[in-house]
Each structure stands twice: as structure tokens, then as C-alpha cells.
Amino acid sequence: MEWIQQIVNGISLGSIYALIALGYTMVYGIIKLINFAHGDVFMLGAFIGFFAIARWDMHFIPALLMAMILCAVIGVIIERVAYKRLRNATRIAALITAIGVSLLIEYTVIFFRGASPEAYPTIFERSTLNIFGVQIDTKSIFILGVSIVLMLLLQFIVHRTKIGKAMRAVSHDADAARLMGINVDNTISATFAIGSALAGAAGVIFGIYYTRIEPLMGVLPGLKAFVAAVLGGIGIIPGAMAGGLVLGVVETIVSALGFSMWRDAAAFIILILILILRPAGIFGKNAREKV
Amino acid sequence: MKKSKVFWGYAIIALVIYIVVQALISFGMVNMHYQNMLITMCINVMLAVSLHLVIGVTGQFSIGHAGFLAIGAYISAIFTMKLGMPFPVAILAGALAAMLAGLVVGIPSLRLRGDYLAIATLGFAEIIRIIFVNVDYVGGAAGMQVTHLSTWTYAFIGVAITIIIISNFTNSRHGRACISIREDEIAADAMGINTTYYKVAAFAIGSFFAGIAGAIYAHNFYIIQPTAFGFLKSFDILILVVLGGLGSLSGAVIAAIFLTFISTYLQAFPETRMIIYSLVLILVMLYRPTGLLGTKEITDLFKFGKRGGTKI
Predict the structure, then answer these.
(1) Secondary structure (3-state) at A90
(2) Of B293, B253, B37, whose CA–CA distance to B159 is shortest?
(3) Is the pLDDT of residue B297 over 50?
(4) Closest CA of chain B from A163, distance in Å
(5) 20 to 30 Å CA-CA from A113: which of A60, A91, A273, B94?
(6) What's the CA angle centered on A197, arms A196 and A198, to 5 degrees?
(7) Do B235 and A89 touch (CB under 8 A)?
(8) Which Pfam families match (chain B) (predicted)?
(9) Searching chain B, which residue's CA lies closest to the CA of residue A224?
(10) Cβ–Cβ below 8 Å for B120 and A85
């Protein structure tokens, strides 16, 4: 029975990864850039949520919305200031800029508030649900609920709205989309806004779940979310969700087996195996590179 | 004939630099603090030049260089501290172990391209670091005690060998093959260049010299810890190469010397240092995506008489 408990924990952790991975995969799908700063947007989201709840006495839902909106704005600013000029630059230049933006965000936050961790306020009483003898933390269920709602919302935006259609068109072929009268710049900004909002939400629920946040907390979840995106097939939205969940469950199982020190290595081993064995990811089709 | 003259010219300049600094150290004009800075400078030059071979010359975007540094550091420390071997043997062992790791990492991951390679090398470096955290033989997370054996002589010889071998490699037939891979991998492949072979070769040579740097790094402090070899260290090395110019050996050397100088003085304010670093990185990439020197060497700037023609 303990296994089921672990798997539920794994799924909650995985849904956080999935929320971050969605932003990665959308941005990668549209401009082919590993946005290293994405993990730091996640961190900023956690801190905005912290300030909203602990200092300004907001309730959970307004705090979550505020974190999402501010993160969306930050994401668009990052894109406009740092990445827009580099659309036609080499991949290496774009990737190095992303690393630079990531370091800049981290150390600016450290500069203003120090590197010490912060304890997240508890907004839920700690209680467990007993389902057929399985003890499940209500926080896990709650996190899962918020993630599922956000993912459904994203599916709706991408598949049912005009901007979603534009996003799919631009990620398929930006030049053709431009010829068809789609404003590519705005579409890319919208992608960053949506991805960053999801990362901000992930930051808030991460803070509630783990009750401890710090300025460098975005680095490892960011990398793992990228692993999740690659695992599911980069650029594919359901793939990112599945990849995040798989990664979360694997990590929890590795920890539960007593190898908690190796937990972080597990993600990277999965990454390397996937890259070598099936670079297109679980859901991806193997497309031949055009010469 | 003319090329070998240039070579001996550089050799004499290097020898003069070495003798002057060594004389200053012997006469006690350079205190421990500055000696440390000199050795750190040499380590950074080695790291920058070895990564330059992978990123700048071959165009393979590896951001896991700290992993090879870690292997060189730990293996050499095991040789001196646990097995009681002399320091030069330990340096060689560390370098060979790093090269072996470079081969192991390189053969599977160099089939990948661009971003995927970057993220895979980052992953490998993290795995290496986590292995060292979990092995109690080398002290686990607490780190490993190492005696201070690195001297200016070792560091300087390391730098000299690194620069000589890598610059000769770059100018050889093999180096030109690597440059062609950087410029256009598919075209290079079509011209009959064994791209995988050259990529792995460049990667292994780069790791070898990172291993030497690691050995000297380990014996320059009294303790080595896995946390020192995280991806921030990899990014630090990357910054040296990028700032110097992607593809410029002298650029990498100058950037390494210059940035070590600055960061020694900014050591007291690590946050400010990282903010300045990241801003410089972003601005250089936005306004000069090939780095400060580009693919030019510093000597090209002085050849005024030789302008013109189609030499690039």
C-alpha cells in the first residue's frame, strides 16, 4: 500500500515538473531555444506567491493569479529584451544568452534579498485522506487538481482559440505563417507569456508543497523539466505532461528505494538514455533532417 | 622555416615570462596571495583553451567541462593522497582519466547536435559530480583533503603544453577538419571528413587538458569538494571562451587572464561578480555574438602590412 502512496507523491511532484516543462516545450517548439531562464521564472513565481500570501495576506487563488500574471509579464520582457534580437543568430549565441539571463535573474534576486531560504506560509491544514487504507496527503491531491485545471486550460487555449492556432502555425513554419498574415512577434510573445505563467503557477504550488524556497531553487527543477520535455518529445504538449509525470514518479521511486542521493542523477541518466536511444522522445515522430 | 621561427619566438617569450615570475617568487617579491592568483590564472587558461578546442574550433557545444575538471582533480588527489605517488604521475593519471571520461561521454553524445549535445554534456557533468558526492572513498559531500603541491612551475608548464599542443592541433590537417565541422557539419561530412572521429578526438583532447587543470586545481587548495564542480563552474569556463571569442585561442587566453584578475578582486562580493558576469555575457552575445575577438587571433591585429587578399 505504501507504493500507491509513493506513486501519488510522485505524480504530484511530476505535475510540478510537467507545468514547467510545458513552458519549455512551447518555447522550444516555436523558436527552437532552450530557455534556461525558465527555471528562474519558476523561482520568481514562488517568491511572488510568497510575498502575496505572507506579506500582503492574500488568499491562495488571488496569489496564484498574481504570480501567473507577473511571471507572464516577466517572460515577455525577457523575450523582448534578450531573445528577440537573436532569432537569426547562431544557436550557441542564443543558448549562451539564455544562460546569461538565468544567472542575471538568480543573482539579482540574491543581491536584493540574500541567498537564505524562506519558509513558505502554510495555507492548508496538514491532513491526510484515507482511501482504502492508503494515506494520501491532501496537499498532493490539491496540487494535482491545480495542475490538471491549468493543463486543461492550456489544451483549450492551444486547440480552440485563435492565438493557439497562430502558435501552432508559427511553430510549424514561421515564414509561411508570416505570409499568411500572422503576427509572428506577438505570437512568440504570447507563447512566452503562457509558458511563464504556467511556470509561475508551478512555483507557487512548489512553495506550498515543499514549504521552502530560495533564489537558486529554479535551477534543478528547470533542468529536470527540460528533461521531461525531451522525454515526451520536445515541442509536443501532451508529451511534456507525460514526461513530467514519468520523471516525478521515477524520482520518487528512486528515493523510496533508499537512493535519495542519486535522485538527481536518475533524471540525467534518463535524459541521456532517451537522447541516445530515441532522440525524438516518447511521443515524437522521427523526422529526417532536411539538408 | 618561417613558421618555426615564429614558434621559437613565442617559446622565448614564454621562457622569459616564466623566468621573470619565478625570479620574483624566489626573491619573495610575490606573496602567497598573488602566487595563488597566478596559479588560478594558469588553471583558467588551461580550462579556457581546452574548452576552446571543443566549442571554438570544432563547434560542439559542450557545457559540462567542470565534470572533466572534477575527474582530473579527484583522480590525481587519489594518486597523491591515497596511493602516495609523486605529483607528476598524479597529473598524468588525472589527465588520462579525464580523457577516458571524455571518450566515454563523447562517443554516445557527439551523435547529438547543438542544444541536445549541450544538455547531454551538462547531464553527464552532473552525473559525474553526483558520483563523487556518493563515493565515501573520496570523502563524499564533505570533500577530500589534499596537500598543497601545485607550484608556479607546474602550472606554467601545464599552460605551455596545453597551448602548444592545442594550437598545433588547430593548425594541422586534423584541426582544419575540425574547423570545417564547425562551419558546416553536413558539408564536411559530404567532403569525406569522418565527423564523428574528429568530434570525439577534439572532445578527448579537450578533456585531457581539463584533467591536467583539475590536477593542478586539486593540489592548489587544501580540500576539494564536489560542490566546486557544479554547472556554475562549467558556465564560468564557458564565459571565458565566449568572451574571448568563439574560435580564438589568444582570445580565450586573454579572457582567462583578465577575468581571473577581476574575479579575484570581486571575490568579496560574489553576487555582484555574477551580476556583472551575466550582464557582460548577455551584452556581448547581443551585440557581438562571436565573442570579443571573433575567430581572429590577437596577432592578426598587428599584421597591418598583410591586409587584403582573401585570407580570412
Answers:
(1) coil
(2) B253
(3) yes
(4) 27
(5) A60
(6) 90
(7) no
(8) BPD_transp_2
(9) B123
(10) no
Cα–Cα distances in Å, from B46 out to A56, B171, B205, B254, B295? 51, 18, 12, 12, 19
Contact at CB, B275 and A108, closer than 8 angstroms:
yes
Q: Could you tell me if B30 lies within 8 Å of chain A, comparing CB atoms?
A: no
CB contact under 8 A, B116 and A265: no
- Put simply, the chain B residues between 167 and 186 with a CB less than 8 A from any chain A CB are 186
- The pLDDT tens digits for A253-289 are 888 887 777 888 888 888 888 887 777 777 766 555 5
The string of DSSP letters for B26-77 reads HTT-S-HHHHHHHHHHHHHHHHHHHHIIIIIIT------HHHHHHHHHHHHH
CB contact B85 to A (< 8 Å):
no
Residue among B243, B113, B132 nearest A279 (CA): B113
Name the residue with cell 551523435. B111
pTM of this structure: 0.86
| pLDDT tens-digit map of A105-157 | 999 999 888 888 888 877 776 677 777 767 777 777 888 888 888 888 888 88
Q: Give the chain B residue nearest A260 (alpha carbons).
A: B134
Instruction: Give A290 to chain B, closest Cα distance, Å.
Output: 11
In the numeric block, the cell 520582457 is attached to A77
> Between A34, A104, A276, which is nearest B279 by CB?
A104
Measured between CA atoms, the residue of chain B closest to residue A291 is B186
Q: How far B130 CA sits from the closest chain A CA (Å)? A: 7
